[in-house]
Amino acid sequence: MFNIFGFYKFKKILFLKKKKKILKDFFLNNNIRGTIIISPEGINGTISGKPKDITKSKNKIKKFLKNSHFDSENISKSKFQPFHRVKVKIKKEVVPIGINIMSKIKKNNYIHPLKWNNLIKDKNTYVLDSRKPFEYEVGTFKKAIKPKIDNFREFPKYLNTLNKKKTVAMFCTGGIRCEKASAYLEQRGFKNVYQLKGGILNYLKKIKKKDSLWKGECFVFDNRVSVKHDLIVGSYSMCSGCRKPISSKDKKSIKYEEGVSCPRCHSKLSSSQKVRFRMRQKQVNFAKKTGKRHIFQKEYY
Predict the structure, then answer these.
(1) Number of structural domains, the chain?
(2) Which residue from 20, 137, 233, 261 could staple onto 266, CB 3.0 to 4.6 Å apart?
(3) How confident is the model at residue 301 (pLDDT cuts 50, 70, 90)?
(4) Model confidence, pTM
(5) If DSSP codes are grouped into helix, strand and coil, which group holds residue 287?
(6) Residue at which a domain ends, from 90, 123, 139
(7) What are 167-178's pLDDT values in tens digits?
(8) Residue 172 bears catalytic tag
(9) Which residue(s) pair with 8 in the sheet?
(10) Which of these is catalytic: 172, 218, 262, 265?
Protein backbone atom coordinates (compact mmCIF):
# COMPACT_ATOMS: atom_id res chain seq x y z
CA MET A 1 0.00 0.00 0.00
CA PHE A 2 1.26 3.47 -0.92
CA ASN A 3 0.50 6.78 0.78
CA ILE A 4 -0.10 9.79 -1.45
CA PHE A 5 0.66 13.13 0.19
CA GLY A 6 -0.57 16.36 -1.38
CA PHE A 7 0.43 19.72 0.09
CA TYR A 8 1.27 23.36 -0.48
CA LYS A 9 2.77 26.22 1.47
CA PHE A 10 3.09 29.88 0.56
CA LYS A 11 6.39 31.04 1.99
CA LYS A 12 9.36 32.97 0.63
CA ILE A 13 11.98 30.52 -0.66
CA LEU A 14 15.52 31.46 -1.65
CA PHE A 15 18.35 29.57 -3.37
CA LEU A 16 15.92 27.51 -5.47
CA LYS A 17 18.49 25.56 -7.51
CA LYS A 18 20.32 24.41 -4.38
CA LYS A 19 17.09 23.43 -2.67
CA LYS A 20 15.83 21.63 -5.76
CA LYS A 21 18.89 19.37 -5.66
CA ILE A 22 18.53 18.77 -1.91
CA LEU A 23 14.90 17.74 -2.27
CA LYS A 24 15.37 15.57 -5.34
CA ASP A 25 18.34 13.72 -3.82
CA PHE A 26 16.36 13.10 -0.65
CA PHE A 27 13.35 11.76 -2.54
CA LEU A 28 15.50 9.50 -4.72
CA ASN A 29 17.24 8.09 -1.65
CA ASN A 30 13.94 7.42 0.10
CA ASN A 31 11.92 5.77 -2.69
CA ILE A 32 9.64 8.77 -3.16
CA ARG A 33 7.98 9.59 -6.47
CA GLY A 34 5.77 12.46 -7.55
CA THR A 35 5.92 16.07 -8.66
CA ILE A 36 7.09 19.07 -6.64
CA ILE A 37 7.05 22.71 -7.75
CA ILE A 38 9.15 25.25 -5.87
CA SER A 39 9.11 28.97 -6.53
CA PRO A 40 10.06 32.22 -4.81
CA GLU A 41 6.55 32.31 -3.33
CA GLY A 42 6.30 28.76 -2.00
CA ILE A 43 6.00 25.05 -2.68
CA ASN A 44 3.28 22.78 -4.08
CA GLY A 45 3.35 19.05 -4.71
CA THR A 46 2.04 15.55 -4.57
CA ILE A 47 4.37 12.70 -3.62
CA SER A 48 3.86 9.00 -3.03
CA GLY A 49 5.68 6.19 -1.29
CA LYS A 50 5.51 3.74 1.57
CA PRO A 51 3.97 5.25 4.76
CA LYS A 52 7.28 5.44 6.68
CA ASP A 53 9.00 7.12 3.72
CA ILE A 54 6.19 9.67 3.35
CA THR A 55 6.45 10.51 7.05
CA LYS A 56 10.19 11.09 6.66
CA SER A 57 9.55 13.23 3.59
CA LYS A 58 6.94 15.39 5.36
CA ASN A 59 9.42 16.10 8.13
CA LYS A 60 12.15 16.86 5.59
CA ILE A 61 9.96 19.34 3.71
CA LYS A 62 8.94 21.08 6.95
CA LYS A 63 12.60 21.38 7.90
CA PHE A 64 13.33 22.61 4.39
CA LEU A 65 10.68 25.32 4.84
CA LYS A 66 11.65 26.06 8.47
CA ASN A 67 7.97 25.72 9.26
CA SER A 68 5.85 23.37 11.37
CA HIS A 69 2.77 23.19 9.16
CA PHE A 70 1.48 23.39 5.59
CA ASP A 71 -1.27 25.70 4.35
CA SER A 72 -3.05 22.55 3.19
CA GLU A 73 -2.26 18.85 3.20
CA ASN A 74 -4.04 15.60 2.51
CA ILE A 75 -3.20 11.90 2.65
CA SER A 76 -4.81 9.17 0.56
CA LYS A 77 -3.90 5.57 -0.22
CA SER A 78 -3.40 3.47 -3.33
CA LYS A 79 -2.65 -0.19 -3.93
CA PHE A 80 -0.30 0.83 -6.74
CA GLN A 81 2.41 3.47 -7.10
CA PRO A 82 0.64 6.35 -8.90
CA PHE A 83 3.84 7.99 -10.16
CA HIS A 84 6.67 6.51 -12.24
CA ARG A 85 9.39 8.89 -11.09
CA VAL A 86 10.11 12.00 -9.03
CA LYS A 87 10.28 15.49 -10.55
CA VAL A 88 11.24 18.72 -8.80
CA LYS A 89 10.59 21.82 -10.90
CA ILE A 90 11.45 25.48 -10.42
CA LYS A 91 8.74 27.95 -11.49
CA LYS A 92 8.17 31.69 -11.13
CA GLU A 93 4.86 30.95 -9.36
CA VAL A 94 3.56 27.75 -7.78
CA VAL A 95 0.35 28.37 -9.73
CA PRO A 96 0.66 30.79 -12.66
CA ILE A 97 -1.80 33.65 -12.44
CA GLY A 98 0.52 36.64 -12.74
CA ILE A 99 0.38 38.07 -9.21
CA ASN A 100 2.46 37.75 -6.07
CA ILE A 101 0.11 36.90 -3.21
CA MET A 102 2.60 36.61 -0.34
CA SER A 103 1.14 39.65 1.42
CA LYS A 104 -2.45 39.08 0.33
CA ILE A 105 -3.38 35.70 1.83
CA LYS A 106 -6.25 35.76 4.31
CA LYS A 107 -6.91 32.76 6.52
CA ASN A 108 -10.42 33.77 7.59
CA ASN A 109 -12.01 32.98 4.22
CA TYR A 110 -11.52 29.20 4.50
CA ILE A 111 -14.75 27.22 4.75
CA HIS A 112 -14.51 23.79 6.37
CA PRO A 113 -16.14 20.93 4.42
CA LEU A 114 -18.75 20.54 7.19
CA LYS A 115 -19.96 24.10 6.58
CA TRP A 116 -19.47 24.15 2.81
CA ASN A 117 -22.88 22.65 1.97
CA ASN A 118 -24.79 25.46 3.71
CA LEU A 119 -22.78 28.09 1.89
CA ILE A 120 -23.29 26.72 -1.61
CA LYS A 121 -26.98 25.93 -1.00
CA ASP A 122 -27.63 29.66 -0.56
CA LYS A 123 -29.26 30.94 -3.75
CA ASN A 124 -27.22 34.15 -3.56
CA THR A 125 -23.88 32.31 -3.57
CA TYR A 126 -21.92 32.16 -6.81
CA VAL A 127 -20.27 28.71 -6.76
CA LEU A 128 -17.13 28.83 -8.86
CA ASP A 129 -15.14 25.82 -10.06
CA SER A 130 -11.63 27.19 -10.56
CA ARG A 131 -10.32 24.12 -12.41
CA LYS A 132 -10.08 23.37 -16.11
CA PRO A 133 -13.17 22.36 -18.15
CA PHE A 134 -12.10 18.71 -18.53
CA GLU A 135 -11.79 18.43 -14.72
CA TYR A 136 -15.28 19.89 -14.34
CA GLU A 137 -16.65 17.24 -16.70
CA VAL A 138 -15.32 14.42 -14.50
CA GLY A 139 -17.17 15.80 -11.48
CA THR A 140 -18.19 19.00 -9.70
CA PHE A 141 -20.54 20.46 -7.08
CA LYS A 142 -24.21 21.14 -7.69
CA LYS A 143 -24.76 24.72 -8.91
CA ALA A 144 -21.09 25.11 -9.81
CA ILE A 145 -20.20 27.42 -12.69
CA LYS A 146 -17.57 26.29 -15.19
CA PRO A 147 -15.35 29.05 -16.56
CA LYS A 148 -14.27 28.00 -20.03
CA ILE A 149 -10.61 28.58 -19.27
CA ASP A 150 -7.93 26.10 -20.37
CA ASN A 151 -5.00 28.05 -18.97
CA PHE A 152 -5.02 29.33 -15.39
CA ARG A 153 -3.12 32.44 -16.52
CA GLU A 154 -6.33 33.48 -18.31
CA PHE A 155 -8.41 33.09 -15.14
CA PRO A 156 -8.11 36.78 -14.06
CA LYS A 157 -9.92 37.83 -17.27
CA TYR A 158 -12.87 35.71 -16.21
CA LEU A 159 -12.72 36.90 -12.60
CA ASN A 160 -12.90 40.51 -13.80
CA THR A 161 -16.39 39.83 -15.18
CA LEU A 162 -17.83 38.88 -11.79
CA ASN A 163 -20.11 41.13 -9.72
CA LYS A 164 -18.18 42.48 -6.71
CA LYS A 165 -21.35 42.41 -4.59
CA LYS A 166 -21.75 38.66 -5.05
CA THR A 167 -20.77 36.10 -2.43
CA VAL A 168 -18.24 33.89 -4.21
CA ALA A 169 -17.59 30.31 -3.05
CA MET A 170 -14.57 28.93 -4.84
CA PHE A 171 -13.11 25.41 -4.98
CA CYS A 172 -10.40 23.39 -6.70
CA THR A 173 -8.68 20.03 -6.22
CA GLY A 174 -6.44 20.75 -3.22
CA GLY A 175 -7.00 24.45 -2.57
CA ILE A 176 -3.96 26.14 -4.06
CA ARG A 177 -5.61 27.50 -7.21
CA CYS A 178 -8.37 29.02 -5.07
CA GLU A 179 -5.77 30.53 -2.79
CA LYS A 180 -4.37 32.58 -5.63
CA ALA A 181 -7.72 33.33 -7.28
CA SER A 182 -9.33 34.51 -4.03
CA ALA A 183 -6.32 36.74 -3.30
CA TYR A 184 -6.76 38.25 -6.77
CA LEU A 185 -10.46 38.96 -6.16
CA GLU A 186 -9.75 40.53 -2.77
CA GLN A 187 -7.13 42.69 -4.46
CA ARG A 188 -9.85 43.77 -6.92
CA GLY A 189 -12.18 44.87 -4.11
CA PHE A 190 -14.36 41.78 -3.56
CA LYS A 191 -15.51 41.54 0.07
CA ASN A 192 -17.20 38.14 0.29
CA VAL A 193 -14.87 35.56 -1.20
CA TYR A 194 -14.64 32.10 0.36
CA GLN A 195 -12.75 28.94 -0.52
CA LEU A 196 -13.22 25.30 0.37
CA LYS A 197 -10.51 24.46 2.91
CA GLY A 198 -8.30 21.67 1.61
CA GLY A 199 -10.19 21.61 -1.68
CA ILE A 200 -12.32 18.83 -3.13
CA LEU A 201 -10.01 16.13 -1.78
CA ASN A 202 -10.58 17.29 1.78
CA TYR A 203 -14.34 17.43 1.17
CA LEU A 204 -14.50 13.91 -0.28
CA LYS A 205 -12.50 12.64 2.69
CA LYS A 206 -14.56 14.41 5.39
CA ILE A 207 -18.12 14.30 4.03
CA LYS A 208 -20.11 11.09 3.82
CA LYS A 209 -21.51 10.27 0.40
CA LYS A 210 -25.12 10.42 1.62
CA ASP A 211 -24.60 14.03 2.76
CA SER A 212 -22.52 15.10 -0.22
CA LEU A 213 -23.36 17.73 -2.82
CA TRP A 214 -20.55 16.47 -5.04
CA LYS A 215 -21.54 14.79 -8.30
CA GLY A 216 -19.19 12.47 -10.18
CA GLU A 217 -15.52 11.88 -9.41
CA CYS A 218 -12.53 14.16 -8.85
CA PHE A 219 -9.74 14.27 -11.42
CA VAL A 220 -6.24 14.00 -9.89
CA PHE A 221 -2.87 14.67 -11.46
CA ASP A 222 -1.39 11.20 -11.19
CA ASN A 223 -1.98 7.72 -12.57
CA ARG A 224 -5.05 7.12 -10.42
CA VAL A 225 -6.71 9.61 -12.81
CA SER A 226 -9.75 10.12 -10.53
CA VAL A 227 -10.94 9.48 -6.97
CA LYS A 228 -14.33 9.06 -5.31
CA HIS A 229 -15.58 9.65 -1.76
CA ASP A 230 -13.13 8.50 0.92
CA LEU A 231 -10.51 9.11 -1.82
CA ILE A 232 -11.00 5.63 -3.26
CA VAL A 233 -9.49 5.24 -6.74
CA GLY A 234 -12.11 6.13 -9.34
CA SER A 235 -13.31 4.61 -12.61
CA TYR A 236 -11.63 6.92 -15.13
CA SER A 237 -8.57 6.14 -17.23
CA MET A 238 -6.48 8.32 -19.52
CA CYS A 239 -6.66 8.63 -23.29
CA SER A 240 -3.24 8.15 -24.87
CA GLY A 241 -4.22 10.34 -27.82
CA CYS A 242 -5.26 13.57 -26.09
CA ARG A 243 -4.12 12.94 -22.50
CA LYS A 244 -7.59 13.63 -21.13
CA PRO A 245 -9.68 11.45 -18.76
CA ILE A 246 -12.09 8.94 -20.30
CA SER A 247 -15.05 7.21 -18.67
CA SER A 248 -16.38 3.68 -19.10
CA LYS A 249 -19.09 5.22 -21.32
CA ASP A 250 -16.40 6.77 -23.55
CA LYS A 251 -14.82 3.33 -23.98
CA LYS A 252 -18.05 1.97 -25.46
CA SER A 253 -17.89 4.50 -28.30
CA ILE A 254 -16.77 3.34 -31.74
CA LYS A 255 -14.36 6.29 -31.63
CA TYR A 256 -12.48 4.77 -28.69
CA GLU A 257 -9.40 2.70 -29.43
CA GLU A 258 -7.10 1.70 -26.58
CA GLY A 259 -3.83 3.59 -26.69
CA VAL A 260 -4.95 5.57 -29.74
CA SER A 261 -8.05 7.76 -29.41
CA CYS A 262 -11.28 8.58 -27.58
CA PRO A 263 -14.51 10.36 -28.66
CA ARG A 264 -12.89 13.70 -27.80
CA CYS A 265 -9.83 13.39 -30.04
CA HIS A 266 -10.74 10.74 -32.65
CA SER A 267 -11.52 13.26 -35.39
CA LYS A 268 -8.65 15.58 -34.43
CA LEU A 269 -5.83 13.06 -34.83
CA SER A 270 -4.18 12.60 -38.22
CA SER A 271 -3.91 9.19 -39.86
CA SER A 272 -0.15 9.16 -39.29
CA GLN A 273 -0.65 9.88 -35.58
CA LYS A 274 -3.08 7.00 -35.25
CA VAL A 275 -0.68 4.62 -37.01
CA ARG A 276 2.11 5.72 -34.69
CA PHE A 277 -0.06 5.35 -31.58
CA ARG A 278 -1.18 1.85 -32.68
CA MET A 279 2.44 0.78 -33.04
CA ARG A 280 3.21 2.18 -29.62
CA GLN A 281 0.24 0.40 -28.03
CA LYS A 282 1.24 -2.87 -29.67
CA GLN A 283 4.69 -2.56 -28.10
CA VAL A 284 3.21 -1.60 -24.72
CA ASN A 285 0.95 -4.68 -24.78
CA PHE A 286 3.91 -6.90 -25.62
CA ALA A 287 5.92 -5.38 -22.76
CA LYS A 288 3.06 -6.05 -20.33
CA LYS A 289 2.98 -9.72 -21.34
CA THR A 290 6.68 -10.04 -20.59
CA GLY A 291 6.34 -8.19 -17.28
CA LYS A 292 8.30 -5.14 -18.36
CA ARG A 293 7.54 -1.43 -18.65
CA HIS A 294 7.98 -0.25 -22.21
CA ILE A 295 9.95 2.90 -23.00
CA PHE A 296 6.86 4.42 -24.66
CA GLN A 297 4.58 3.68 -21.71
CA LYS A 298 4.47 7.22 -20.42
CA GLU A 299 3.26 8.41 -17.05
CA TYR A 300 0.28 10.75 -17.05
CA TYR A 301 1.86 13.45 -14.92
Answers:
(1) 3
(2) 261
(3) very low
(4) 0.90
(5) helix
(6) 90
(7) 999 999 999 999
(8) yes
(9) 44, 72
(10) 172
Domain hosting residue 278, numbered range: 238-289
Q: In this structure, what DSSP letter does residue 79 have? A: S
Given a contact cutoff of 8 angstroms between Cβ atoms, the answer to whether 219 and 139 are in contact is yes
CA distances from 246 to 14, 77, 253 (A): 40, 22, 11
Q: Are 268 and 252 in contact (CB under 8 A)?
A: no
DSSP 223-271: TT-EE-GGG-B-S-EE-TTT--EE-TTGGGSTT-BTTTB-TTTTTTS-H
pLDDT at 202 over 50: yes
- Distance from C-alpha of 2 to C-alpha of 53, rounded to nearest angstrom: 10
Count of all residues that appear for the chain in the document:
301
The amino acid present at 179, given as its one-letter code, is E
The DSSP code for 119 is H
Q: Which residues pair with 48 in a beta bridge?
A: 4, 33
User: What is the C-alpha to C-alpha distance for residues 182 and 179, in angstroms, rounded to an integer?
Assistant: 5
Beta-sheet pairing, 167-171 with 125-129: parallel
- Structure confidence by residue, pLDDT tens digits, 211-255: 999 999 999 999 999 999 999 999 999 999 999 999 999 999 999
Bridge partners for 49 per DSSP: 3
For the domain that residue 81 is a member of, what is the CATH number? Answer: 3.30.70.100
Distance CA 296, CA 24 (A): 24
pLDDT single digits (tens) 249-287: 999 999 999 999 999 999 999 999 999 999 999 998 888
Q: Residue 294 pLDDT > 70, yes or no?
A: no
